[in-house]
Amino acid sequence: MEEKLLDGPRLFRMSCEAMKAGLRLDHPNSDEAEIHRLLIERVYGSQTR
Questions:
Q1: In a domain, 22, yes or no
Q2: What is the pLDDT of residue 32?
Q3: CB-based burial of residue 35 (10 Å sphere; 0-12 exposed, 13-18 middle, 19+ buried)?
Q4: What DSSP designation does 30 have?
Q5: How many domains does the chain have?
Q6: What is the DSSP secondary-structure string of 6-37?
Q7: What's the first-to-final CA gap in the chain, in angstroms?
Q8: Can you give the pLDDT at residue 25?
Q9: 49, part of any domain
Q10: Tell me: the pLDDT tens digits for 1-49?
Q11: Neighbours of 2 (CB within 10 A)
């Protein structure tokens, strides 16, 4: 049961890493801070504040 509880966060982390890889391809001149900002925008939408 505990293993299944950990699957959700693990899959989310893997998905975020995959999205970051795609963002790096789309925005090759962006630094890690910008990639992180773009990831947050993609996950939560542009209305994060």
A1: yes
A2: 97
A3: middle
A4: -
A5: 1
A6: HHHHHHHHHHHHHHHHHHHHH-TT--HHHHHH
A7: 36
A8: 98
A9: no
A10: 778 888 999 999 999 999 999 999 999 999 999 999 999 999 999 875 5
A11: 5
